[in-house]
Design goal:
The structure holds 2 protein chains of 2 kinds.
Chain A: H1 4-24, H2 28-52, E1 54-55, E2 58-59, H3 61-92
Chain B: H1 4-24, H2 26-48, E1 55-65, E2 68-76, H3 78-101, H4 108-127, H5 131-149, H6 156-186, H7 193-200, H8 215-232, H9 241-244, H10 250-259, H11 261-271, H12 273-277, H13 280-301, H14 307-335, H15 348-373, H16 386-389, H17 391-405, H18 411-425, H19 429-454, H20 461-464, H21 471-486, H22 490-493, H23 508-529, H24 540-543, H25 548-597, H26 602-628
Helix pairs in contact in B: 1-2, 1-4, 2-3, 2-4, 3-4, 3-10, 3-15, 3-21, 4-5, 5-6, 6-8, 8-11, 8-13, 10-15, 11-14, 11-15, 13-14, 13-19, 14-15, 14-18, 14-19, 15-17, 15-18, 15-21, 17-19, 17-21, 18-19, 19-23
The chains are: A mainly alpha, B mainly alpha.
Chain lengths: 105, 629
Amino acid sequence: MITLGHYLVVSGMLFALGLAGVIARRNIIIVYMCLEMMLSAANLALVGFSRFHLVNGLPDYTAQSLVFFTITVAAAEVAVGLAIIVALFRSKQSVDVESVTKLQG
Amino acid sequence: MNASIPLLLPFFSALVILLGHRQLKGAAVLISVGSSIISFIACLALLAAADDKTNNQLLLPFIDVGHFHANIDVLIDKQSRGMMFIVSFIGMLVHIFSLGYMKDDEARPRFFGSLSLFMFSMTGIVLAGNLLMMFIFWELVGLSSYLLIGHWYQKASAAEACKKAFLTNRIGDFGFMIGILLLFGANNGNVNLFDLETAFKHGGPLALGSPGYNASFTTAAALCIFLGAVGKSAQFPLHVWLPDAMEGPTPVSALIHAATMVAAGVYMLVRVSFLIEASPLAAEIIAGIGCGTALLAALMATQQNDIKRVLAYSTLSQLGYMVMAVGAVAMAAKNGHDGAHAAEPGHPAMFHLYTHAFFKAMLFLGSGAVIYACHHEQDIWKMGGLRKHMPVTFWTFSIGTAALMGVPFLSGFWSKEAVLGVAFDSGCKVLFLMGAATAALTAFYMTRLLIVAFFGKPRTESAHHATEAPMVMILPLAILAIFSVISGYDVLATPLQAMKPPHVEGHQTVLVASLLALIVGVGSAIFLYRGKDKDPISIKLFANKFYFDEIYAVIVRVCQDRLAWIVTALERVFVDGLIARLPTAIVARIGAATRMLQGGHMQGYTFLLGGGVIGVVYLVVYVLPRLGH
């Protein structure tokens, strides 16, 4: 029997892996992919919750349709994010996050 | 007659000239001289409309806060009317004289602007109906005196002198202010002169002998107010600024540092004489300081070689006389000799102030004519023989000298006798003897000045080629010479009620003493200086003014500089260190520490964000429930 706990554990692991990737990796494209993974983890958790939240004996589909929205928006966000990465590569000639330190105080 | 004309006219003149003296140029001179002439006519009208009543006019409510009122109001009585006449008359003559004396000066508009400012402030003092207003104008004359002494500010000595005059006066002004505040507190915030007099006069709540009377308080107030006069009238120990003030142009010396401003201290003392009479101790101190100044200054004058400095020390000495008279009148009043200053005749100090104003202004203007003729040579030993080259100046100067020495039937004789008479009445014989000694010394040094500068042979080229001064300079001299003769007589003094000579009857001693002093002084001076080309006597102590400047320099070095050093050290530690530097250092450190977090590495931020989220989750899930239950 698969319970909500299982979903959440998988979701948490995905999220933790994504976060570790974002923090540790140097290639900005990998970092970006890890970021998408964290988003997927959040989606998974949402779907899991909706499956186990019963309304009149049926799963709550509102959340599941919300996930579709999230995925759509994430796709748009990917377009923007990749465009930023391309622009960054053009100015720095590198995809190493260490080379982007403009925010230094 | 409205008294605001002589007050406001010089004010507007000063305002216009000082704001626009670059554009006005020659017109500035005309505005200033014109305003002084119109002011004089207004003062004559004021005098003509004289009634015996004391008239208090409110001109402007200056500060009006709650129960506190400071007004610009004018008090017109016999004293202010008489003083207005002196100020505006001599002011006008000095304006006219300056037309000649300052002819070649490039900064003429500035000079005349400052002169108008002085006329405005001096008029303010004379007319002031309350002590606060008097204090405001008191400071203003200090300012205009500063500006005028420093007229030739390119000269280092003039710049030093104006600074010295201003700072020395500040000491006195501070005392004056404390005195005013004491009276302010004692009389429920009312420092109106008329009301104060009512309070302190016989039967008033603060009068001598009434339950509200407090001897030490009254003495303190009187002495603080007197300190103001000590500064302005250059009494010992604040007398050091006046001789140095001779660095200013000579007309200024005549007007400000001989006839009017320095007399303002005496005038103010006469104004508050009710206060001095209420405190016998203060009266004795005032008389003593006046007398001491008179004698010391006369001794110093005997060894000066600068023509203006001799006159400056003589001014000091005569001011000492007036201050002594103020104190002595109060002392005499205590002793029951009321005759000398009973309501009707004038106060001896005012009488001497009035005669002195004429002959001393004339002597200064005369010395100005001499200096002008000798191409700005001021050393009397480099003059000589001017009698033949400048006859008019010589004769007027001689009349002034004779009046100052107290030759019988000239104005100085009457007023000096009035002063000596009241000193005699004061019951303190030392005052009288010192006064008589001063009179002898005065005769001595003035005769010396006259003989050395005007008689004998010219000792330098410039003295040889000296010619008579132009008409605009001669005319004021002549007018003042006439007044030096007649001002002692009732014909002129009676309309100026306050200046009316007090009757000195039955004072054979005084008469004999003053005549003896005159003969001794003149005789010894003629005997010593006749035909001499250099000073036959040399007394270092007198020539160096009793080393007062040096003593003050040491006092400043020893006390003030040390104190300043300590204060500087405290400021470095507390103000600069604890208040300014320490907080900035703390903020800078905190900034440096937080700046290290802002590495600019995205991943660092993400790591912190993740750590933060974990921390929040840990708190919400594990810590808060345990705290809640």
